[in-house]
Model the fold of this input.
Amino acid sequence: MDTLDTIVIPAEFKWWAKMGYSARGVIYLVIGGLGVMAASGSHGEITDSKGAILAIVEQPFGYALLVLLVIGLFGYSLWRFIQAIRDTDDHGKSPKGLAIRVALFGSGVTHALLAVWAIALLDGLDDSSSGAPGILSSDLAQIAFLLTGGVCITAGLAHFYKGWNAGFDKYMSLPPNTQFWARPVCRFGLVARGVVWCMVGWFFIDSAMKAQADEIKGIDEALSTLQQSSHGPWLLLIVASGLFAFGIYSCLEAVYRRINVGAIPNGK
Done:
């Protein structure tokens, strides 16, 4: 293969990707664990990714852990961009393949923003008064939130499909002696995250239609909605347990996922 027609990704980068999967896993373990505690009447609380990071910072050596999380999130974000642009998993250029690659790129953006926010914590910054509500209430923002809601719902349905069909199998090399428990946990985690993503997508669409884009709702609001519904504690317990399972799935990816690095055709 002509080297002029290839792009080479350093093999060492796979460790950044693995740190990224680990960072995502830790965040969802905290979100799910706190949600389970809240559902069971313990001292847990419903939170989102930012709340999970804040909870980590409050632990012993919290800021050292935060630095590792930032490195992991940036590594994960970069890996998502490479997956999307270089098509390392051979999704192709079909409508389905392009949709997956766009979702991977969006995941890279969101995790990069989360890493930037975590850096602001290290610097002692507070983004609570950024003046964003006025911007978020514009007509352009309404359209953007409608599109974002559609993307979130699509991602949620994709998680359902991936969990139901165990689509993660072709990207992971799970040892035979772990498959009997790891596969059900991974499927449960993906379906639960799919539920949350669909709810978050609806929140975006609903806010845009009601011209309330300044009231952005996320994972914490989705879990709160479940908690306040009929049979709320049980629904919250199931979904929060699923998010915890998704954290385990992410940690398993950090160990067993095939990270395709090396020479990738430039014309791919």
Notes: Residues 176-209 form the longest helix (34 residues). Residues 35 and 44 are 6 Å apart (CA to CA). The mean pLDDT is 76.
